[in-house]
Design brief:
- By secondary structure, the protein is mostly helical.
- 79% of the residues lie in helices and 0% in strands.
- The chain is built from three helices and no strands.
- The longest helix has 37 residues.
- The chain is flat and about 75 Å long.
Length: 124
């Protein structure tokens, strides 16, 4: 199996794994909902709950089947991207960013002080 198919299988595996997980959570919510209905003595036809439960179980089983079908995609290697940063340039850029940040802070502070002065003069 070529690399492209393995990567596609990995993507499909992740999708169906998510669906299997979501289906099991929905089934748990359905069971909890049924429990709350029994505690509160609300009468709801049990056939509705059973039909929804059967649909969810089939949904989960289909998703689990596809996870096994696409599990070969787990062996697909992801291409790693290596980033080499020249430490001198990185330090210079970091210092420049800090200086710019401090300059913006000072500018904001000046603008705030000017706004305060204008506000005071308008009150008089």
């Amino acid at each position: 199996m070529n690399q492209k198919n393995l990567i596609e299988y990995k993507r499909k595996y992740d999708t169906v794994r998510h669906h299997a997980w979501a289906g099991s959570v929905l089934l748990a919510v359905l069971v909890a909902f049924r429990g709350f209905l029994e505690i509160t003595d609300i009468n709801l036809d049990d056939r509705i709950i059973v039909i929804i439960g059967i649909v969810l179980i089939i949904y989960i089983l289909v998703s689990v089947f596809f996870t096994y079908k696409y599990r070969s995609g787990l062996s697909a290697e992801q291409k790693s991207v290596e980033i080499h940063i020249n430490s001198k340039n990185a330090e210079k850029e970091k210092i420049a960013a800090e200086v710019e940040k401090e300059r913006l802070k000072a500018e904001k502070k000046r603008a705030k002080a000017e706004a305060k002065k204008i506000k005071k003069t308008d009150k008089k």
